[in-house]
Amino acid sequence: MTDEGRTRKLTRRELFTSLRPQGLKQQADRWRSGLADSLDKYVPDNDSEAGKSFAGKTASHTTRYSDAPEMLPGRTLEAISLGQPDEAVAALRPYVKHKPKDREARLLLGRILYKDGAIVQSRVEFERILRESHEDSLCRWPASCAALCLACALARCGKLEKASGMLLKAMDEDRPQATATLERLAEALGTLARQDPAEDASLDTAVDGLVATLENYIEAAYPTPMEMAADLAAGETPTNPGSTRATAT
């Protein structure tokens, strides 16, 4: 393999696809196959009188059914499992619009946008979650996860001082053992915020390393977007798994 082949960076879509669990596409294909068999058995042939009647009755409902709010979480999960972030966002946006107080769904939307590189759009979703969580502590799910995600987004946008401050506000009370590490990350971001990028060419690399550490912690400590989408599709509310998932090191 050439040096170029070894060092080529993955595109955002390739990275998103590489993170999805194995076997989901095959499982989705089996579901589609089973659905097709059921339709062949129970839906009349289009050439028959019954089939023509059935088609006439269902044609006007097809679009409305596919866009029904209760169908959107399932479409979101399928899109994530197939590595299609754009389709996942397209399905989840109208769901969040239909249920604007669903903070978990909005958090999932923000995390998908962030992973797909839409950092500014993800900030909007994370910030709204925090505004709607004003009566709750920022140290509790889902606000705690949204605050850490917002810190990542702020840092990626070059707002290092704000990112540092957000980290200090978002210490998760369910994971007190991670507090020291998060405080060190906040302190390091604050230090980098006071440096002049023109005088330190390695500043971007240092920021990338700190944000990557925080991103890894979020992925380990909280439900992943795939897990959140699965809960949403099953009609369950994603919950904070507590300190049993992971701790920062």
UniProtKB/TrEMBL annotation:
<dbReference type="InterPro" id="IPR011990">
    <property type="entry name" value="TPR-like_helical_dom_sf"/>
</dbReference>
<dbReference type="Pfam" id="PF14559">
    <property type="entry name" value="TPR_19"/>
</dbReference>
<protein>
    <recommendedName>
        <fullName>Tetratricopeptide repeat protein</fullName>
    </recommendedName>
</protein>
